[in-house]
Specification:
- The protein is an alpha+beta fold and about 70 residues long.
- The strands form two sheets. The chain has a two-stranded antiparallel ribbon with strand order 1-4. Strands 2-3 form a two-stranded antiparallel ribbon.
- It is globular, with a radius of gyration of 12 Å.
- A hairpin with a 5-residue loop joins strand 2 and strand 3 (about 35).
- The chain starts with a strand and ends in a 5-residue tail after the last strand.
- It is built from two helices and four strands.
């Protein structure tokens, strides 16, 4: 499973991630990114990558976790 992860200590609230992928996240009233999608689908992965790449302080990342069954 892929998911977007925000490093809140690094984030400075520029909003570039929101501009790149408004379908996946938004900024709250304190300019903190809020992830709106729990898991990133294969179709959303390029959009998530654009959001990660847009962050000027590298506060956003795409995490891949393996689900064991």
């Amino acid at each position: 499973m892929n998911q977007l992860v925000v490093d809140r200590n690094r984030c400075e609230g520029y909003g570039m991630c929101q501009q790149a992928a408004p379908q996946l996240l938004h900024l709250n009233d304190d300019d903190e990114p809020i992830i709106d999608v729990a898991a990133i689908s294969a179709a959303q992965k390029p959009l998530a990558g654009a959001a990660v790449g847009a962050c000027p302080v590298a506060a956003l990342s795409l995490s891949t976790t393996t689900v064991h069954r």
